[in-house]
Amino acid sequence: MLKYIIKRLLIAIVILLGVSIIIYSLVRMMPTDYIDNKYAEQLNTGSISQEDIDRFKEMYGLADNSFGGIIKGYFNWLGNMLKGDLGRSFKYEKPVGQVITENMWISFAIAIVATILQFLIAIPLGIISATKQYSVADYVVTVFTMIGISLPTYFFAAIAIKFFAVDLGILPFGGLISATASYPDTFLGFLEKLGDMAYHLILPIFVSVILSLGGLMRYTRTNTLEVLSADYIRTARAKGLSERTVIYKHAFRNTLIPLATLLAGILPSLFGGMMITEQVFGIDGIGRLSYNALIEGDIPFVMGYNMFLAILTVIGTLLSDIMYSIVDPRVKLTK
User: Fold this and answer.
1) Residue 100 near residue 87 (C-beta atoms within 8 A)
2) pTM, two decimal places
């Protein structure tokens, strides 16, 4: 196991290096950059000259967009990263690491609650759909799955806001706390603020859960149907065991084995934020900040954020492989 982990970590270093090269090249080849976006209006009004913009670009290391300039800029960024310096965000005017650590926790709170609810709802529904194949319940779950997979986030979020916030008026439009709220600097005030934040996050979490149920339900249904056709399930039924015991003691445990592979994608999603959801609901999580940074060509932040996600993905993939070998003894990690 240790040999396997070391080998995977060495491969991960090569993967992360390749990812960083691709991301940096794509960002540098964008038609505009941070300086162009920031001073576009001043340039049009004549309050700043093109020479001034060129000097700013030189100061930020964005003047040379040739192949050689991009290579030079990448190795400068790589050298700083190896020293533990992700650079200073152009847009947020803070160290990139500080911006990420300060703003990822609200995204993590939304994602962890949504993920827990997703698993608690999707897995039972997937099992019910499989055990009652071609029944009304199966068709209802299938339709619900297709709706969840097909609806874009911004569209379903707009419908949810219209219904719950505008028509019914029972939930807020967005944000984290009420605009007119003022909380005393006490423990009671902290609890009131926490409750207000939880109230504002109901709708974003609801949207996230509904839209993420479909894939997991379909995955669970397919795995369960495969397990139910196995020989040991027929043997268990032949022994006279109740259908409930067959499904939830024998089939359910083996149905969960392939779900261990989902860990590879869950880890980066927990800390990476939900870019579109946060944008629609006006939540200043790491997803929304990264979207705004990308739009404005904030190279240090875009690089730091994407490398953060890439590292989480590599770690998630490794943990997924290890978990798979633990829950399924037939899998041996020897290569």
Assistant:
1) no
2) 0.81
The DSSP code sequence of 216-242 is: HHHHHHHHHHHHHTSHHHHHHHHTT--
Residue 285 near residue 107 (C-beta atoms within 8 A): yes
Would you call 162 helix, strand, or coil by DSSP? helix
CA distances to 31, 118, 215, 238, 245 from 131, rounded to whole Å, are 53, 20, 18, 17, 13
| Helix intervals (H) in 86-241 | 96-131, 136-150, 153-160, 187-228, 231-238
The C-alpha atoms of residue 207 and residue 211 are separated, in whole angstroms, by 6
Measured CA to CA, the distance from residue 181 to residue 226 in angstroms comes to: 53
Contact 178, 171 (CB under 8 A): no
- Alpha helices, H only, 40-95: 40-45, 50-60, 67-82
CB count within 10 Å of CB 36 equals 17
Q: Where are the domains of the chain?
A: 104-299
> Vertex 136, ends 231 and 205: CA angle to 5°?
95
* Fold for the domain defined by 104-299: MetI-like fold (1.10.3720)
- Strand, coil or helix: what is 330? coil
Q: What is the pLDDT of residues 250-268, one digit of tens each?
A: 777 777 776 767 766 777 7
Q: Tell which residue, 118, 160, 167, has the closest CA to residue 265.
A: 118
| Selected residue with higher pLDDT from 206 and 315 | 206
Record the tokens describing residue 297, joined without a space.
């060509």
Q: Which residue has the tokens 């669970």?
A: 220
Distance between CA atoms of residues 135 and 306, nearest Å: 44
153 and 207 in contact (C-beta within 8 Å)? yes
**CA separation (Å) from 114 to 161, 262, 309?**
18, 15, 19
Q: Which candidate, 304, 279, 297, 280, places its Cα nearest to that of 289?
A: 279
The band of 328, judged by pLDDT with boundaries at 50, 70 and 90, is low
